[in-house]
Each structure stands twice: as C-alpha cells, then as structure tokens.
Sequence to fold (221 residues):
Amino acid sequence: MRRSLLVLVLVALAAHAAAQAPAPAAAAAAPELAPVTLPPPQTDGGLPLMKALKLRASSRAFAPDPLPLQTLSNLLWAAWGINRPEEGKRTAPSARNWQEMDVVVVNATGAYLYDARTDALKPMAAGDLRPLTGVQDFVKEAPVNLLLVADASRMQGGEGAQPMAYADAAFIAQNVYLFCASEGLAVVVRASFDGPALAKALKLTDKQTVVLAQTVGFPRP
Fold:
C-alpha cells in the first residue's frame, strides 16, 4: 500500500514539473525572400559576334564567387530579355511568339523568377536549392544555376507544342553561352536534374516543366 502511494505521489510530482516546464521554442521560420531589383541591363559593348562564337565553350569548373548584380542583369537580358519594348518581343525567339519559357535563377539564398518587364527577380522558394538543379557536384558550388521552365498553358492552338518548348529553351541557352563567352564566364547547359524534386520545391503547376538547366559563374582558377 505504501509503495503504491509513493508511486502515485512521484507520478503527480512529475506531471506537475512537466506542466511548469517552459514549452520548447518553436522552430525558426525559414527566412522569407525579398524581391531583388536588378539594375537596368547594359545592352551595348561586349565582343563582336564572331569572336564570341569562336570562344563559346562548356566548362565544369566554377569558382564560388557570386556574380555582381549588374552582370546577372546583363546575363538575364541576353538570355530572355525584352529587346523590342513596343512589341514585348524577346532576345530569343519562341514558336508563335508564345513566350512560354520562364527563366528561374537558383543561387545560395533561394529561387527567383526573372521578370524581364520590370528588371526584377521575384521570390519563388527560400533556401539553397542548388543541389536539386543537377547531379554533378559543381552545381552545389557555382553561384548561379538557371532553370528554363516551359509553361504549356501558354502554348495554345499549336500541334507538336512540346518539341517547340525544347527548341525555345535551346535558343535561350545559346544566348547564355554567347554572353558568357563575351564576358569570360564559365557556363554549361545540362539536362540531368531531379525534375520532380524541383517541381515540388518551386511549387510548379502540372503545366510547367523544367526543360534545361544551365550553370554560370566565374571560371575556377
């Protein structure tokens, strides 16, 4: 009897102590990404086209140093910027002018959608998602991985739309190659990445597909 009473007392004391203990601190929320305002792209200068073509090459050795914001702005304009504002036309062609492609910038802080009309990066997902953008080790260290995302909801009224999305992505990728050749940057285009994981992390719709990835950065010395 005494032993049973002692057990009850101990249980009661333990319950009281638990009730008085401070609640564990809530896990810190993931930092929210803020939009990034890009400087206006510099659309003059650079190497002559034939020289850039001569220097165009793929590289898989990247320094981790971040790209200056001006360089990133120029890069994105070359890739998929608006070069005829009165018509809303782009630096790369698209079938039927669908403009179904989006360029997503993935860096150490998160993923951003490039908005060519406002020269801005719009937050999509916080956190370092670079490991999802490819199977090669260098994607985790390179400062920028571009994702070329096709949105089929914009491709209305055409047959064989999916192959055209791949062609349109390739046009953008070549623009990136030529810009990098002109600026002395390292670059490589890739098709090996975890598509489902990226779609989940970026909250893509079932109409959106990551077509290509492209890594950009300074060459590793």
